[in-house]
Amino acid sequence: MHSQQTQMPVLVPVLSRGRHRNPRKGACFMEMASYLAGERWSDHPACTHPLLAALARLVNDFTSDEARHRLAPLIPSVIGLNGDDLRVDARIALRAACTALPVVAADLQLAMAVSVLAAEQILAELDGRPQDDLSEMSARALEQAPLAAEGARKLRRGIRVSSRGFRRFAAPNTVQLAARGIANACVADPNRLLRELLEHSIADSRATLGADSPAETVETGRENRRETGRMSADADA
Hints:
By secondary structure, this protein is mostly helical.
């Protein structure tokens, strides 16, 4: 069993916005994940589902410099979370839209409400349940923005988003708009909302994929680095 201290390296690059050439230049959330996973230094590592990684990059970049260090304990949790199950994309998009809908500016609320219904449609089809059978999270979010919810239902009537279109366009756009909207929202602590969005999305993805524990996946990454010697190569690149 591994404690949180053993999951992170002794010398951790300072988390900062954007991409970095190597650990000596700093690191974003996903670059640090690639390092812990034993992969080539990258902000698009194979160890994490693409949409979850996109959300992590957005949360990293939209979180203030003063609060970004609080994201570090979550980094090991994204390692090993990958798979083709469309439910992962749908639940990440749904979580993002439901988190953003009650707090974003009025001009974004309709887009978030539409995204809630689109994600629920995908999940209903995958789970074999009625289209109007909304989750408690979705119902609660829509209730907090009734005008946007009414407009979204009118727009969505008779429209079906394809699985391919949802994965390639709708879900990534939802995540991007939601993260940006939360960061700019008139709320007391947008950093906390962003962190909680990422934390809950990680938990949703882990529950959907049934992945190994973070400690196991990080230890595997360490073994890979010891075997290949890439740790020193990355640091010297």
